[in-house]
Each structure stands twice: as structure tokens, then as C-alpha cells.
Amino acid sequence: MPDKPKILVVNDDANSLFALTSLLGLWAEQESYEVLAARTGQEALRQVLMNDFAVILLDVNMPGMDGFETAEAIHARARSADIPIIFITAFLADELDRLKAYQHGAVDFLFTPVIPQILYAKISVFVALATKNEELKKQARELSLRTTELTASNGRLRREIAERQVAERENHAKDEFLAMLGHELRNPLSAISSAAALIGLPGVSVDGVQRAKKIIERQSRHLGRIVDDLLDLSRAMSGKILLDRAPVDLAALVAGTLETFRATGRSSGYDLAHDLAGGWVDGDATRLEQIASNLIDNALKYTPAGGRIEVRTWTEGEQVVLSVRDNGVGIAAELLPHVFDVFVQGASTLDRSQGGLGIGLSLVRRLADLHGGDIEADSKGPGAGSTFTLRLPRIAHQAPVVTPVVPVAGAKPSLLLIEDNEDGREMMTMMLGCYGYQVRAAADGLRGLDAVREFCPDLALVDIGLPGIDGYEVARRLRADPATRHIKLIALTGYGLADDLARVMAAGFDRHLVKPVGIEQLMDAIESSMQEPVIL
């Protein structure tokens, strides 16, 4: 409940003070106000410091601090400057006294003896004003609070609208990405399916079979690149990529990447120029090649056949710079700040001749960040081509370390393949047999352990995700048995994170290969494993 308005009576004469406060007390309950009293100007000031007053009845003639001085002191304080003061005097005030009183903030005069009806009329006005002012202040506070609440609600609504719009854009982009992913997966799968069916048709020529095999091989590599891009982007976004750092000459690495593009025919029909000046960086060669390959591949996607692509490397202060410039379709100004965002791509039509998922640039940015570098894009607009510039911290020139290759002597080792996927098991067994290896195969971990005891292979290729007991347990049991602990073990798995590698090696494997495994990679792993001591 709000406080009642207060009236202060200031008079040094005790009788006069009692008479006034008693008279005002007669109407206090009716008019709903409180009456306070003070004998001196100093006491009046203390009351003003502690309370707000609707009106002050102030005696003019007081010893020490008179009424005029008291009024001046009250109105000198900001909080009490607007309190109305009615001077009370026993003397008839002349014009000069009235002027002086008004100059000190008086609103009226009362002469003693005070006529009750006049006092009641004057006091009622100021009490009513004080009550109305308090109501207005209360309404102002409520309005201010409501305004604050509405402003906060409006801000929340704006943020929610903005977040919803961002979510809708992201969902739309993801929908487009999933449509593109379906398109990119179905194209090679359709080619592989058709080629496989062609091989089995009666009357197909030898040349037709060879062409079908090349199509299957090429499209399988394409599928592998799609899966690798998806996995690498997921790992990079979650911070799970660990770099295998070593001194790398960026110019030599880019030259090798360009040669791969030429050898595979991916750059045929383009004017692919290069100017590569040496520059050493501390980085992961595989990931740096991935950056260069994605930038070149991006230029090929968005440059019409016959266009020109320029690849340059140079040193600039403490940085090594890679630039890929094309004269292709260019990048619109509104898209330029977002070209490295996930699920954002330009010209996302399904008939792009080069294909792709549009996640390569997102992966490039994250790999550049991991290397302590940065990547930027520049374009003058649609039709004006684009330039992507990578900057990496430079290190001092490093002499290359040459590791001699020791040829494998003697008979080929006997192999055991433990793989639960029937098609994969059959194909790998046939391929290894074509390379002259003696191969046994088992469909699960327990059968694999039985085959080891019967066959005693030199090396076992073990899938990790086996039914019954998994590949880790197979390795642990083989290493725990003195009769089998000498067998070389290579893990085959679809998991390629650093934690997966650590778990594989902890179980006792000699090598860790991530599916799909190329035959050349498998041959190298088998040969190098047989040259090394067993990990016990």
C-alpha cells in the first residue's frame, strides 16, 4: 500500500505548533495524510532529508534560521526543490515581504490566527496534488516497466525470427546438399551397376569387358573421394583431425597434385598453367595435398571447358602463398563472404559437368586453420572468374629425407583374411590370389582363430567389425598365445580417426588400413609388415 502524503509544520512556538498540528489532525483521516512537526529550521531540514512532503507550513519568524533561510535551504536540494511552502506569520506582510517570500519558493501566505476553513481548503489542494502526482509516478513506473518488458519481448522476437530465418536457410541448404549427395552417389553407382551387368552379358567383347572394368575402377575411386570428403569434413568440424606434421615444400607438393590431375585426365580440355616457387611449411602432406586438390578441383568445376586456370606458389615475408585463379563463372558479391560455409555453394545445378558435393571449400578452410594459416576468396562478380589464396606460416628450407626401399626377398607370405562381408571377402581373396599369395578366408573372429591354428599363416588381414568377437579381441588372443604371437597383423576398418589407430595398435596390430583399400596400398602394407619385427 503506498505511503500517505505528509504535511510538515515548522514553528518555534510550542503552543502554535500544537494548535496547527492538532487542527490538521482533525482532517488527517478524512483526507488520508500524515502530519509531522519541527521546532527549528535545522530540524525541518532533517525531516526533509528523510521524507517527501505534500506541503510545508513554515513559520517566518524563528530564532537562528528563520523561515526564509529554511525555505532557501529546502529548495536548494534537488529532491525537495519542488515542495510547496506556505509561510505562516503573525504580521501583516507588506509587498516587499511577499516578494521575498515568493523569491524563496513560497506558494502562499497564512496569517495567524489561522482560519480553519481557509487552512483546510489550501491543504486539501496540495494533498490532492501530491496524491495525483504519486499516482502519475506509479503509472510512469508501470509504463516504464511495461516498456522495458515489451522492448525485451520485441528483442527476443526479433532474435527468434532471425534464428528461424537462419535455420530455414540452413535447412534449405541442407536439403539441396542432400539432393546433390543423392545425385553424386547415384551417378557412379549407376555406372558401376551397368558396367558390372555388361561384364556378365553373353557376347560382350574383350575390349568391352576391359572398358567396363576401367569404369568400375574409376567410379569406385570417385565414390571413395565422396566418402572421404564427407568424413574429413565431419572430423574437421568436430576437431578430430590430427595432423602428421613434417617439413613440406609446398611447390613440390602442388606440382605433384597438378601431375595427378593431368595423369587422370581431370584437367583435360583446360589451359592449366603454373608458376611454382619453392617454399617450406610445417604441415601434413596429405592434408595440404587435399587443400591444393580441392582448390584446383573447385576451379575446374566452375570454369567452362577451354578456360584458363593459373596455379602459383611463392613466399611473401614469413608466409608461403598458394594462389588458384580461374576465368570461370565468378562469385556473386552476396555469396562471396559465405563460400567457405558448410552447405553453401554457387551454381548448385544438377547438370554440372564436373559434379561434386560443394563441401570442398569448407574442408579447405578448416584444414588451413589447423595449419595456422588462412584462406580467402576474391571475385569481381559473375562471369569475372575467381581467385583463392592460401597463406601458411613459412619455415626454414629443409633438406629432404630419403628412406631407402628394401626389396622383399624369398617366397610370398601365406595370408589369412578374416572378413564377414561375403562379397568383400571373395573379391579380396581373388585379388590376392592373382598376385601369387596363398590365401585362406574366414567369415568371423572365432572361425578365424580356428583357421590360424590349422593354417599357421605368416600374416592375417583382420576386419575390426566382426560378429562374435571383434577384430581387437582376435588380435589380443593371437598375441597372447606363444604359438601365434609371431603372426603379422593388419587391421581393416572403416574407422580412421587417431583414436581408432591408437586402439588398433594397442590391440597388437602391425598396420591399420582404412577401407576401401586399394590393391597397391594393400601390397605395400603386406610387404612392409613382413620386413618389420613383431609388436609384442
UniProtKB/TrEMBL annotation:
Question: What are the residue boundaries of the Histidine kinase domain, all occurrences included?
Answer: 180-396
The residue range of the signal peptide is: none
Q: Where in the cell is it found?
A: Cell inner membrane
Residue ranges occupied by any Response regulatory domain in the UniProt entry: 6-127, 414-530
Q: Which residues carry this modification: 4-aspartylphosphate?
A: 59, 463
Q: Which SMART domains match?
A: HATPase_c, HisKA, REC
Q: What Gene Ontology terms describe where this protein resides (cellular component)?
A: plasma membrane
What name goes with this protein? histidine kinase
Species per Swiss-Prot/TrEMBL record? Duganella phyllosphaerae
